[in-house]
Structure formats: C-alpha cells, structure tokens
Amino acid sequence: xxxxxxxxxxxxxxxxxxxxxxxxxxxxxxxxxxxxxxxxxxxxxxxxxxxxxxxxxxxxxxxxxxxxxxxxxxxxxxxxxxxxxxxxxxxxxxxxxxxxxxxxxxxxxxxxxxxxxxxxxxxxxxxxxxxxxxxxxxxxxxxxxxxxxxxxxxxxxxxxxxxxxxxxxxxxxxxxxxxxxxxxxxxxxxxxxxxxxxxxxxxxxxxxxxxxxxxxxxxxxxxxxxxxxxxxxxxxxxxxxxxxxxxxxxxxxxxxxxxxxxxxxxxxxxxxxxxxxxxxxxxxxxxxxxxxxxxxxxxxxxxxxxxxxxxxxxxxxxxxxxxxxxxxxxxxxxxxxxxxxxxxxxxxxxxxxxxxx
Length: 357
What we know:
Layout: E1 4-6, E2 12-14, E3 28-29, H1 32-35, E4 44-47, H2 53-62, E5 67-70, H3 78-82, E6 86-87, H4 90-96, E7 99-102, H5 107-115, E8 129-132, H6 138-150, E9 154-157, E10 160-161, H7 163-169, E11 172-177, H8 180-190, E12 194-201, H9 205-234, H10 238-245, H11 253-263, H12 273-290, H13 295-312, H14 320-328
Parallel strand pairs: 1-3, 4-5, 4-7, 5-6, 7-8, 8-9, 11-12
Antiparallel strand pairs: 1-2, 10-11
C-alpha cells in the first residue's frame, strides 16, 4: 500500500516518486511534509546515540515515532531500548528505514559509516532520506550528496548547535545544506528536537555555517574565561558579576551556560574538548583552502590542543578555564563568588577641610 500525493491539479501521484521510499498505508495529503506526520508509517533509523544524539532520539520517541538505533558502544543505546527503540546493526537499519539520521564524532566516522565498504548508503532504499547531523567537512558533505544522488537517495548535511542543554530541551539550531524540498519533507522530524531550522544553501553549506558558529564560540569561550580570571583577581563577586553581565552586551550562551559550570569546577562534557578541537581544525583547513587568516581561531585552537594534551580530551569545553588559570597562575576559587554581607563592608568617612578662598 502506498501514500499518495494530492497535487493542485487533482492528479494523485505515488509519494515515492516525490521522495519517500516505502510507506504502509494509502491516504491523501495536501503536501509532502504532512505525510511524515503519520508516525506509525514512517520508519526512522538513527546512528550515534552519544551525549546529544540520545536526547534527540528521545524527543522523536516522545513525539510518537518508532526508531531503529545503532551506536558503536552498544551500552549507550540501552536507555533508549528500554524506552522502546529497537537496536540493530547499520546495514539492517539502513535497509528498513525510510529516513536515516547520523550523529557521529569525526569526519572519518561519517565517511566510514556512510560511504565505506559496508556503508549504509549501499543498503538504503531508493527515495530514502539521509540526514547527517555530525559536524563534519563541507567537502565530505558534498561528496555524500553526489554519491547519494547517483543512488536516488536524498541527502542533507545538517549540523546542529546548542550543546547538551539545547538537545535535552529540544531547542537546537539546525543549519542545513541541500535541496529545499528535501528539507521541507523532513522538517517535522527535526522540529521534535529543534527550535530553529534554516536552509543555508547547497550541499556543504550546512557545514560551512557550523564552522562560522564554532569560530564565534571559540571567541566567546576565551572571552568568558579571561573575564572570570580578571574578575577573580580584582576581587569581584563572580556569581553576581555573571548575572549582571548576562543582561548586557557581554551576554552569550558561553557566559550563561558555561560560566556557572566553571565556577562549580564542573567540567563534565556537554561537548567534548576533543570534538571542539576537531571542529576548529576543520575550520582552519577551510581557512587555508580559502586563503584567509583568522588568528583568534588559531590561538584558541592551540589553547585547546594544550588542554587535550594534558588529559582534558574528554572534558567539556568549559575546561578551557584550567589552561588560562595555569598561564596566569591564578586559579579561580570560591572566595569571591558572592556579594559581601553588610557586616563585611566597611565604610570610612573622611572629613576633608575646605580651602578658604
């Protein structure tokens, strides 16, 4: 049985001719995207259930979609399996799914999982959709798009921003490269875990947008860390300082989300240092290709490389604090976190004699 698309001229076309590979009941839809709202009919595969992928899967499941899932470390899928997802190997996942999402670590992982000898692209159905949420190389995104196109598969590069906080809250930003009609078709799924979704251009442009995002974040992170160290050394109450600055021009995601973690010495990963280093290296490689100089990015990259080399690869990106504390020999402590009490404030009144004219 097939889904049918009701065109404006009244002609009913099989929906597979407009994108979806295989559905299980016949009905009519006013537009393609509404077909995806028949949650029982859509078969979704998801590869990569790490810090962010798990939360994104959970939002889809809570919205009523059924998922086939795979992760290289199987233990990371156990919570989702208990909640109703079905664990299966990538080849089988690809064969059974109408839409496959990937959320992996590195470009070489993406290339292996999608284009490798046992890559899922070879097992996916004609007309199926492949959405890669990994932050990866723009050139690789273009390569996947072209290879998918040869097989009649619709590919989108769609990296996300918002970290673990955004993933858990379902408020990620998704930057997409590919065909507009393909995005419109899968957008209802992305909206389960995203607050903002935008098509940025052709294949690879989602990844280029993510590089701009990471460059900006690099600047924010070093700014926040240096601001905290300066404030601490000056003797400022850091918690009220963060609260105040978060309401002004210095406000940023880094300040509101990561600065409080820094003060608590909470270096647990919302986003791994090693993955941020990877992102900056992709950006620097693109800078080299385009022959542009971004010295701020290069500096922050080196600081994070130092952090990674000193055992911080699995820390969250807020652990940059440790590197700059060491450079200044100024550990940010808890001694200046809050405003002083009235008893601690001493006010001196000094009488200044007026000079006679």
